[in-house]
């Protein structure tokens, strides 16, 4: 059985679900191009699901999940698919979806409530998920106190390990020189090519 969501998380989920419905309603009239509509709807819906999971985890008293991004293998830039990006201007969604202005004001009010701020402090991943949503609705995010960063201890060299001797610079005279062709090889081809 999943734990009940905190009231602030339930209100946030309701706002995001209604925003998804408002975005979907603007597509058939041609106000939003279908690819952009699908991208916006998917981003809002995924953020809503992830926020609900993080809020349920915080309500159960479990510590937040800290995941490090895996190192991606270097790829050829030509073989990479272009990332589909949303516009980055603040409040860009309010123009094509006028109902988004009402949900923006609801979200702004919710982010000023003490229980929502406590939820953001308990589950820091929610603030990261809200960042693009707040940008598309021109909503100011609350200022949260900085979180203490936990660093991994650096592995130390055991005391019994031998010290690595310092490397000395090779003097200029001792450096290997470039290879030269043997004289008999040069004699064979000197007469064939005109000067």
What would you say this structure looks like, in words?
Helices cover 45% and strands 0% of the residues. By secondary structure, it is mainly α. The N and C termini lie far apart (91 Å).
User: Radius of gyration in whole Å, from Cα?
Assistant: 30 Å
- Report low-confidence residues grouped into runs of 5 or more: none
According to DSSP, the number of beta strands is 0
- Measured by DSSP, the beta-strand proportion falls in under 5%
Q: What profile does the largest beta sheet have?
A: none
Tell me, what's the shape? flat
Total of DSSP H or I helical runs spanning 4+ residues: 6
Could you state the oligomeric state of the chains shown? single chain
Measured as a percent range, the helix fraction is 40-55%
Terminus-to-terminus distance: 91 Å
Order of helices and strands: HHHHHH
Summing up helix and strand content along with how strands pair, one would put the structural category as mainly alpha
Overall average pLDDT: 77
Secondary structure blueprint with pairings:
Layout lengths: L6 H19 L8 H26 L40 H11 L3 H9 L1 H14 L45 H8 L5
Feature tags:
195 residues; mainly alpha
Quick summary:
This protein is an all-alpha fold. Helix content is 45%, strand content 0%. The protein starts with 6 loop residues before the first helix and ends in a 5-residue tail after the last helix.
């Amino acid at each position: 059985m999943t734990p009940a969501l905190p009231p602030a998380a339930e209100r946030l989920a309701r706002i995001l679900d209604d925003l998804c419905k408002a975005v979907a309603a603007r597509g058939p009239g041609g106000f939003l191009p279908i690819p952009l509509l699908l991208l916006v709807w998917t981003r809002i819906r995924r953020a809503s699901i992830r926020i609900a999971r993080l809020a349920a985890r915080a309500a159960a008293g479990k510590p937040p999940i800290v995941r490090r991004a895996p190192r991606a293998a270097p790829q050829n830039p030509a073989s990479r698919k272009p990332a589909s990006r949303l516009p980055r201007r603040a409040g860009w969604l309010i123009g094509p979806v006028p109902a988004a202005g009402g949900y923006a004001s609801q979200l702004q009010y919710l982010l000023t409530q003490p229980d929502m701020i406590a939820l953001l402090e308990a589950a820091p991943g929610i603030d990261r998920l809200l960042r693009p949503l707040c940008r598309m609705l021109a909503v100011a995010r609350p200022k949260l106190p900085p979180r203490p960063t936990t660093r991994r201890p650096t592995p130390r060299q055991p005391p019994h390990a031998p010290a690595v001797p310092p490397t000395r610079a090779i003097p200029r005279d001792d450096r290997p020189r470039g290879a030269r062709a043997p004289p008999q090889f040069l004699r064979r081809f000197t007469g064939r090519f005109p000067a």
